[in-house]
Amino acid sequence: MPSKYVTLFDILGFKVRLNLSWIFLVVLATWSLARWYFPEYYLGLSDDTYWWMGAVATMGLLGSLVFHEFAHSLVARRYGLPISSITVLIFGGVAQMEKEPPSPKAECLMALAGPITSFALGAAFYLAFEVGYQMQLPLPALGVLRCLAFGNSLLGGLNVLPAFPLDGGRALRAGLWQWTKDFRRATRWASMAGSILGFILMLWGVAQAFTGNFIVGVWWFIVGLFLRGAAKASYYQVVARTMLGSEPIQRFMTPNPASVSPDLSVEKLVEDHFYRSLHTMYPVVDDSRLIGCISSKQISGIPRDQWNRLLVRDVALPCSKDNTVDIETGALAALALMNRTGNGQLLVMDGDRLAGIVTLKDLLKLLALKLDLEGVA
């Protein structure tokens, strides 16, 4: 399961990550601002200036999204919800929570913190624009400040829409949760609202493109497409939390997994294990104790003529916390670790002894079976 994120920095105990879709979005946003927005509203500047304005404004909007999500995370921490990371998406972000909000009130306050922050940022940038105008700042600087004021106001406005997983949709879920006393049903209804709104935005984007507003239409279509996908994914994440939360990992791990001896030569390891099983990693076990891990990537860095002279113990590395879990770990926590690190398999430890191995395929198979037997709307 390859990782779809890149870590930007750690601050205040939060790891800030960027969804790789932003590589495309940064280019599209910069191009849209440099070739359409700024030339239309600020005439007479050079092409290079427009491109610099577009790049600076895009980075400012990215920073605003991080600030928006920090507001959610700080409120979540106030209610005892551990946040391991913040992932920046198109018009907001996702705070990686290891459990659901404890109450409708906590959910509502967490949801409202984001739009309030974005509106406050919009007001601050607009105030900076007005002060800069009075101080006669250069036109490019004024243009960027006004763009950031508008962008944050738009971000806040989009997020108050009652469509999950937007912040307004989370507030809607909190109200439905309070009314129905059923968290999963409230999530399903709020997600349906998100999916419907996403479809409407996609149609609006197509209509805009056909009436001549191509760039505006593309952006609305992207936002609608993302919203539909996020609404569905968010609902099934709740389903997964509900159905896997109490399942111990040892219930469906593969016991006594394939391992290799530290006294095996690297050449034997490659010929008898890597080439035959097509696995890319093996745990190194000595008398049932896990002493390290060895991967095909490590072997690839060793010259071929040294394979018969080196033993596995000479090149094996300690197994990281990212690919090991304790036998008492729950299935949901294991799935969250896989999602966070990009590892598709985890070694299950009982003290210093290797008890088994669990793969993403095992977890998804269990979830699919529970959905088939227990049903889900």
Low-confidence stretches: none
Largest sheet: 4 strands, mixed
Q: What is the ordering of alpha helices and beta strands?
A: EEHHEEHHHHHEHEEHHEHEEH
The chain-level structural class is: alpha+beta
Give the proportion of residues in helices. Answer: 55-70%
Largest beta sheet: strand ordering = 1-2-3-4
Strand content: 5-15%
How many distinct helices? 12
* Average residue-wise pLDDT: 82
What does this structure look like?
By secondary structure, the chain is of the alpha+beta class. The chain folds into 3 domains: 5-160, no CATH class; 184-244; 249-374, CBS-domain. The chain is 60% helix and 15% strand. The protein has 12 helices and 10 strands. The strands form 3 sheets. It has a 4-stranded mixed beta sheet. Strands 5-10-9-8 form a 4-stranded mixed beta sheet. A hairpin with a 4-residue loop joins strand 3 (83-88) and strand 4.
Topology:
Layout: E1 5-11, E2 14-19, H1 21-41, H2 47-78, E3 83-88, E4 93-97, H3 104-134, H4 139-159, H5 167-180, H6 183-210, H7 214-244, E5 254-255, H8 266-277, E6 281-286, E7 289-295, H9 296-300, H10 312-315, E8 324-326, H11 331-341, E9 345-350, E10 353-359, H12 360-374
Parallel strand pairs: 2-3, 8-9
Antiparallel strand pairs: 1-2, 3-4, 5-10, 6-7, 9-10
Features:
single chain; 377 residues; alpha+beta; CBS-domain; four-stranded mixed β-sheet; 10 strands
